[in-house]
Amino acid sequence: MHHHSVRTFRNLLVAIMLASTGSGCVTRAPSTPFIITVRGAGAECATTVGGRQVTADELRTIGQQESKRTQVAQIETDMAQTPYRCIGGTIYRLQEAGFRDVRFGTQPAAKR
Fold it and tell me: Is-above-0.85 flag for pTM?
């Protein structure tokens, strides 16, 4: 009886080790965040993705596709020059699109 329980325990350990090294436990490399640039002056907000200015609806659509690739979005902005309503609206749309982690990077104001 004792010999049987040792063998059963050993088989169980082998099964656990094989399961943990199989396809069920895949470690993903960190993905590159989805980068959005937000600028604002007066009543205007400008949101840019990949160098192209986008509307709120376009940001939501692009964001839905990008959130399948990564759960991290990063807003690049000059916090001192961009109204919070521009930043807050972008955060809202990114969360709506499916991003779980919205980060901030700062950029100096664009030179005119």
Answer: no
| CA angle (66 as vertex; 86, 71 as ends), nearest 5 | 85
Helix (H) / strand (E) containing 64: helix 56-69
Which of the pair, 71 or 112, is modelled with greater confidence? 71
CATH number of the domain to which 63 belongs: 3.30.420.270
Split into its structural domains, the chain has a count of 1
Is residue 4 situated within a structural domain?
no
CA 50-76-57 angle, to 5 degrees, is 55
For residue 56 the two structure tokens come to: 């709120």
* CB 59, CB 49: distance < 8 Å: yes
